[in-house]
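Reader question, answered in our methods column.
A reader sent in the components of a multi-part assembly and asked whether the whole thing could be modeled at once rather than chain by chain. We filled in our standard form and ran it. Here is what they sent:
COMPLEX SIZE: two components
ENTRIES:
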Amino acid sequence: MNDRASPPVTLHVCVTCRRGEEPLEPLQERSGHKMQAALTEAMQNAGAAGIELVPAECLSGCKRSCTVALASPGKWSYVIADLDPARHAGDILAFAKAYAAHPEGVPAWRERPEIVKRSVLARVPPLPQERTA
Amino acid sequence: MNDRASPPVTLHVCVTCRRGEEPLEPLQERSGHKMQAALTEAMQNAGAAGIELVPAECLSGCKRSCTVALASPGKWSYVIADLDPARHAGDILAFAKAYAAHPEGVPAWRERPEIVKRSVLARVPPLPQERTA
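And here is the structure of the entire assembly that came back:
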């Protein structure tokens, strides 16, 4: 299953996340939607080869919005919380690139932006049948 | 990738989790190790076809020990926290079975044990290339 040197990385962005007192409607006013837009812009500006941005509805981190998750076959998955679309899109993209470059998806601590050091909500090991190491 | 009717389910149990003031050593005294033992016993007693228990080192839920994660190709992954090895092994096994039976790994709310309703720390969508629906 892992016969490619660099499997694609999926960056799931929760588009239903609300921060603070944001109303339920319109959806476009939610910070999750703004996070999706900010990540899209950052990826267009900085390049993001091999990283696919995919909208998700709820990563169950509602109390710590905004949230994103990184996943890739054979790698650990990471859920990152406490994100502000006005400040953290570049940091998330930087972490996604470090994640893409690491064979197990576990970038060294020094390679992690400060917000990522503080805000990993949870991580999930690779499936046994997909492990590369 | 999803050509099997029921892909195997992996139940990751964090064996390094410590609850309360538990010491670092010996590892066997940590609640994470006790959770692994309790789940092993529950699976032997109640049966757990298609569910594989796999020890993990840190699911990044340390502040909400004990933690486990459920994952399977093409399904959502779930990280569940706040678990007590003396009380919750049976509930986790019941949820793992409901998870195994659901094609997307998202059991209906009424099928979730109370501890699971309260304690989902995060969830991660299936990879786009593994989605079944």
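What stands out: Chain B touches chain A through 30 residues (CB under 8 Å). The first strand of chain B starts at residue 9 and ends at 14.
Send us your own complexes using the same form.
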